[in-house]
Q: What sequence folds into this?
């Protein structure tokens, strides 16, 4: 992973030879997984694209897509940057990405763009104590401050927070506050 990141940095510094040397060292090791192989292929494709070799770039992208599809690895393509978009719009690559990397419209084939917004989730009612914790989160209080303010242990506050996140279908404090405000709970 470090070698791939270092190769990406070398490429950004316009030192493709150094980048290829780092990437060539990866293939000699047998411990690399599909995520490393996909990222390495993407760095090689970016180098080929920067050198103006579009055919090689697309060939490497196709191989990366095939390797990534088996494991449903999406993050490397999202992290690749804007250079990848024109290539992904071509028919062969677009078809390889259809259904698992890009959404498919049932009548018109592959539909570019972001996926449709998720359907609204049914939210379970918060308990009085969970609501108290959420109000203090909205006031930007730390977990320790909430615990002291409500005369609870820090672990109890954390348990209430986890329950709030689950009930609001979120993963972070800020998301919980926004969702609660959208639902007029705060």
A:
């Amino acid at each position: 992973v470090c070698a791939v990141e270092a190769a990406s940095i070398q490429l950004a510094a316009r030192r493709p030879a150094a980048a290829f040397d780092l990437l060539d060292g990866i293939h000699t090791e047998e411990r690399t997984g599909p995520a490393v192989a996909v990222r390495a292929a993407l760095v090689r494709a970016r180098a080929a694209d920067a050198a103006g070799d579009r055919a090689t770039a697309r060939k490497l992208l196709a191989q990366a897509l095939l390797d990534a599809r088996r494991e449903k690895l999406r993050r490397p393509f999202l992290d690749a940057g804007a250079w990848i978009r024109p290539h992904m719009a071509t028919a062969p690559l677009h078809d390889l990405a259809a259904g698992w990397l890009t959404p498919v419209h049932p009548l018109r084939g592959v539909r570019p763009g972001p996926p449709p917004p998720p359907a609204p989730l049914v939210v379970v009612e918060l308990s009085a104590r969970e609501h108290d914790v959420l109000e203090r989160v909205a006031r930007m209080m730390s977990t320790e401050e909430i615990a002291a303010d409500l005369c609870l242990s820090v672990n109890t506050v954390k348990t209430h927070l986890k329950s709030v996140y689950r009930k609001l279908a979120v993963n972070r404090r800020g998301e919980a506050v926004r969702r609660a405000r959208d639902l007029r709970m705060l």
Q: What stands out?
A: The chain has two domains: 2-110, 128-182.
